[in-house]
Automatic annotation (TrEMBL):
The keyword Membrane does not apply. This is Alpha/beta hydrolase. InterPro entries: AB_hydrolase_fold, RBBP9/YdeN. The keyword Hydrolase applies. It comes from Mucilaginibacter rubeus. Keywords: Hydrolase.
């Protein structure tokens, strides 16, 4: 599988370890990881600025952002602040930063951004994600104008839920790359 877009991988809280599908894809396809200064106690405005610095390195019209968990909120905040028409965003397992189950230590990621994104997006959700209910995940995706893909009982769609290579996710990412 080949990709025409410039793919920027943006992990969530704690970064993505070597067995995470984001890290596997990064290595396999030479995607670029957005390297944040603080993965453990992030500040939203810092993440948004860093993300924008990465996007500016490329032709925005050819950029696809691949966000997991907290990165989905960061991408939505980035879109609201900069309103740049990128090629698309692949948003996986968006965490609900307003939920009681959300870990402490982040700053500025509430309330959840609910504005329509100025680019195509696919939001992948699960029925049993500890960090977001299916109803809230649908609310986020609908507000963002995303295509919603529910992959069933997939937990947080990470290593602990047995998502390593995740070829089905690559097929969805390819849809964004080819413009559907």
């Amino acid at each position: 599988m080949t990709f025409n877009a410039d793919i920027l991988i943006h992990p969530g809280l704690g970064n993505s370890g070597p067995q995470h599908w984001q890290s596997i894809w990064e290595k396999q396809f030479n995607f670029t990881r957005v390297e944040q200064q603080d993965w453990e106690t992030p500040v939203c405005s810092d993440w948004v600025k860093t993300l924008n610095d990465y996007v500016k390195r490329y032709d925005p019209a050819n950029v696809i952002l691949v966000g997991h968990s907290l990165a989905c909120a960061a991408i939505a905040y980035w879109a609201r602040q900069y309103n740049i028409g990128i090629k698309g965003a692949f948003l996986v397992a968006p965490s609900d930063t307003e939920a009681d189950s959300y870990p402490t230590g982040t700053s500025g990621f509430t309330p959840m951004p609910l504005g329509k994104l100025p680019f195509k997006s696919i939001t992948v959700i699960s029925n049993n994600d500890f960090y977001v209910t299916p109803e809230r995940a649908h609310l986020f995706a609908d507000s963002w104008g995303s295509e919603v893909v529910n992959i069933g009982d997939a937990g947080h769609i990470n290593v602990s839920a047995n998502y390593g290579d995740w070829n089905e996710g690559l097929d969805l990412l390819k849809k964004l790359d080819t413009g559907y």
